[in-house]
Amino acid sequence: MQLAHHHGTGTWVRAADAELVHRARTAVQHIVERSSTTAQVNDLALRAAEQSDTSGGWYPPSLTHGQAGSALLHLYAARAGLGDLEAAFDHIREAIRSTQVEPLEHYGLFAGTSGLALALADVTRDEPRFRSSLDRLHEQLADQVLAAPPHRIERAVSDLDYDLITGAAGALVHLSSVSDPSDRVADATAALVDYLVWLAQPAKSNATPHRWLITPEFYPPVGDYHAKYPHGYLNLGMSHGVPGVAAALAAAWEAGHRRPGHLEAIQSLTRWVRDQAGSDAHGPVWGDGTPVDEHGRESAAECGHDRMAWCYGTAGVAAALLAVASATADEELHAAAITAFDGVLARAEHIRPLSPTLCHGHSGLVVLALEFAPWSESARDRLPDLVRQLLEHHDPGRPLGFADVEEPGKPVDDPGLLTGATGVALTLLAAIGDQRPHWFRAFLAR
């Protein structure tokens, strides 16, 4: 285990075991070589679509399912001496160029304008000639937010309105990172904060426990939401729920974009999230959501087992609490976040994610262990094992070495960042690198 560069509060910790570093670099090299051109990733995306029942579709400007993500892989690989910066530049140019064919009409972080901007901002650190493109993209992003701010209608809220993946929280996380924002960008940032502050304030309509209540007519068209939550529910995932909102508001607060009611909103959301925890032998456990009954009263959430994932479950919630604690200098909350994540690591000794990927798999656990390692002895101790377990998923016979496993026996050779090999490679580079990568912001809001 090795302590490396100081980053913010806490010292970055990486896995420094020589054999592990060699294996990680070999696995990353495989992915880099197989995904260096647009033609290669297009072929892989087509293959993944044929293998998968649920694949979100390849969209070049997307951070998580497109070439904006591929650009980040080649950028970080080049920084680690494993790739070519020109490949990163080619991918980001293709991502931008493709918006002329299929314009980016939404500001979301994972597949919209703010995600492309996050990737382009990182590339611009190595190639300042992209600066004018980045400035234009930020103005476009601000225009999109200000032209269509999220609607403020109780009982007509969808997770797409507010969440980290598609909604206001994700766009706010990126906009909060823009140094020296233009007036237009600052106005857009303020509009997103104001919406999320509104979301956190007490509901006025009957049978509505909170404004972020999602009623059955606004459920996603997947999964068993109607069976689990016949009368509505309050989402508890980092990806689609209130933990991500609290973390995004904290990011804006820390960056100095402070609005009326802002700190109270962070505190009330955080308090509510903490109140939803169940517990087991290892500590607090968060389920996927809190159901409401026909009168709008909250019922106890089902916490049968922990998800062992970034998207839903205790690990992601702990990361959100850490982000809030760091932004607000709340030492008690900071300690509570670490305790919660230490519990996740204890459970992870017995339960392993099925897939190696970021969203709901093993890479997500490694990213979270890296995030907590500066403060958690358990995370520092477990990090080499978690990286080793991730590398056990590597199959040199597969096109990218790592396949997403949606269900047992159904591997998908996904080239994307969220549910594919690009995300695994970026995670491995982070685990053996000497500083915290900027792309963590998309998942951890800091």
What can you tell me about this protein's structure?
The protein is mostly helical and 446 residues long. The chain contains 18 helices and 8 strands. The protein has helices spanning 18-34, 38-51, 67-79, 85-98, 113-126, 131-147, 159-162, 168-175, 183-200, 225-228, 242-254, 262-275, 314-328, 331-348, 362-372, 377-391, 421-432, 440-444, and strands at residues 2-6, 11-14, 233-235, 278-280, 283-285, 289-291, 404-405, 411-412. The strands form 4 sheets. Strands 1-2 form a two-stranded antiparallel ribbon. It has a two-stranded antiparallel sheet with strand order 3-6. Strand 4 and strand 5 (283-285) form a beta hairpin. Helix 3 runs antiparallel to helix 4 (85-98), helix 3 (67-79) packs parallel to helix 17 (421-432) and helix 6 (131-147) packs across helix 9. The two termini are 24 Å apart. The model is unreliable at 1-8 (pLDDT under 50).
